[in-house]
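Question (not urgent): is this output format expected?
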Amino acid sequence: MDQQHLKQQKAMAGLEKNSTDCLPIDDYVKTYYLPVMYSIISVVGLMGNLLAIVIYLAKLRPWKSSSIIMVNLAVADLLYALSLPVLIQFYITRNWVSGEFMCRFIRFCFYYNLYGSILFLTCLSIFRYIAVVYPLKAAEIRRKRWGTLACLAVWAISLVEIGPMLGMITVQQKDNLTKCLDFASNDPQVVWWYGWILTVFGYVLPLLVVCWNYTHIAGSLGSSVSRHSPSRSRVRMLSILILVVFVLCFLPYHIMRLLRVDSLRRTEVSCIQRRGIHAAYILTRPLAGLNTFFNLALYTLAGDKFQQAFWSFVHGRERTSSTISVIHSPNMSKTDLLKI
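Got this back:
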């Protein structure tokens, strides 16, 4: 393992050897931009997701399948928010003091949350697709066991996807300081193909599934008599929100990560180009973490009960009878099925 680390450090040193004669714009972005963005994400993510978990535990029992998915999504976001203070301290001081194991673990937390969130949102879209396109299966898909099985599968698949990364991330000694390298800043020959595999199977494939699901949901709702109902408007906003998360938060990050690793692989890339690509890549990293903000809105749009439970929790009142779950019947409209 020490020989592998030495090889990575030599490779990175060689790549940066010609980078001292141009403006270190990536260092400026890393020092001044990342601590601010990570601080905002950490505070909002910690408070918002902790509150969401408490509401689900105290006010929204018994759970259905979508509730279980939402709680697990909140737990993933909460764990990510808890890992950020260590990174904030690192980018402010420019020196990693927590050891190599913590470097790997903290970087691992970001990717575990990233690809876990992608899969949780994909599962949510699949459940809604089944409920709308196959209404006779709606009562079955809302059972807790399906939500539990889906979440167990998400955690397991995410671990398989991200597990190899623990052996690729390392620390680097430079100018008497210790650097905890981001995944895309490690040895490019090691992370190049693995990065492509993560992009295709961890992001592109779930994106195609989500787009396919919501296209068919929109087509099915188009023939519904309740097309202008408030519930349908909420469903439209929910679909748009999930697609915005996939495109706005996740797409720029995956594109720039590939470009970042490619710039380290090719020796003909100039110093200013390499630093410019690195700076752009750094800008997209907190953007990917902003999915935690959109997920907070998702809890409300996923159904009308969370908002009522929130106000009940804030004001200390018991839930009204309107929050009681509605038993599925054959006459339930397609729009109502989307609350599942």
